[in-house]
Write a structure and sequence with these properties.
Number of strands: 2
Shape: globular
Order of helices and strands: HEEH
Distance between the termini: 35 Å
Number of helices: 2
Oligomer: single chain
Helix content: 40-55%
Largest sheet: 2 strands, antiparallel
Length: 86
């Protein structure tokens, strides 16, 4: 029963958030025509690698420019769409 409730609540939340996600994805795509999603491999539970996907807020290849993986306030690698977020 708990699993069913989790899936129902998560599905409802996704439906409610989908218009905002679509607008954000469109803003990222229109910014520079690059990919909408940023893909990164991270280490998870018990040292197992997993792939993380999130909306891209920096220029393509940002991890190889400037401060690398560090991000400072006002970093020029952040896109306009990325600055618009929280």
């Amino acid at each position: 029963m708990n699993r069913l409730a989790d899936v129902a609540i998560a599905g409802s939340a996704l439906l409610l958030a989908s218009p905002a996600l679509a607008i954000a994805a469109l803003a990222v795509k229109l910014e520079d025509g690059g990919p909408v999603l940023y893909r990164q491999t991270r280490v998870g539970r018990n040292g197992a690698d997993f792939e993380l996907l999130k909306l891209r807020t920096m220029v393509v290849g940002a991890e190889t420019m400037g401060a690398g993986l560090s991000v400072n306030r006002g970093d020029p690698r952040i896109t306009r769409a990325g600055r618009a977020g929280p």
